[in-house]
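Q: I have 264 residues here and want to know how they pack in 3D. Can you give me a structure?
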Amino acid sequence: MRRRDFVRGMAVSTAWSLAARAQQAPKPMRRIGYLAFRAPLIADDAFLERLGSLGWIEGQNVFIDRRFAAGDMELLKKSAVELVHVNVDVILACASVAAKTAKDATSSIPIVFAATGDPVGQAFVANLAHPGGNITGTSFDPGPEVTTKQLQLITEIVPNVSRVAVLWNPAVPFIRTYWRAAQDAAAKLGVNLTSEEVSDPKNFEAAFDDMDQRHVDALFVLSDTFMTFHRKLKFDLIINLKAAKALGLTVPPKVLTEADEVIE
């Protein structure tokens, strides 16, 4: 064999070897920052399952850097800064407080939030159709405009209702928007609202004692506990007749005809 042919053969062999190694080389490990004010999402297992269905297996090709602040705001801010410092590929922010903290910490790392309320009102995104910036995600409710319909249903189901207690957490910024919407709706519907503010679980008992003393006719909860930007244009109205009967309520036929589902 001539020297030229030998060198050429070695070059081809080496090239094929390098190409084979390149094909076999594992993809770089991706890093997800998981930021939560208190604890992980209730749907944490579903989150991991969905990642797996997309080919992302924790410990194999994706590392999830979990940071749970246990209700400590300073720890949450520190955790967000640390996730930015280690340069995670994306931040999953659970609920509104974590989403705002992540947004304040970075304008370049993509942020996906989950279980927030009123993302436009909280200035997380410009609008639902075009979030803009480096942040997007899901919201657990349709926005404060639904408050009017909810109060209207109360007046239709509970005849002669005059005083409605509103249970809400003033510590959650976006809930104040819902409270104002409830006040506007109540004025139009001719009902009086009693504000029952609870920002700590230990205050629930006092709130219900106050409702009892005020002899309220109904309770309306502005939830901050837990829709994507392709927001649903229709929300289901489900009526539980068994529960209504237990409360001594008769659901008007008009409301029944509007219901998407009636539980006998």
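Q: Anything worth noting?
A: The domain at 146-233 is CATH 3.40.50.2300 (Rossmann fold). The chain has two domains: 24-139, 146-233.
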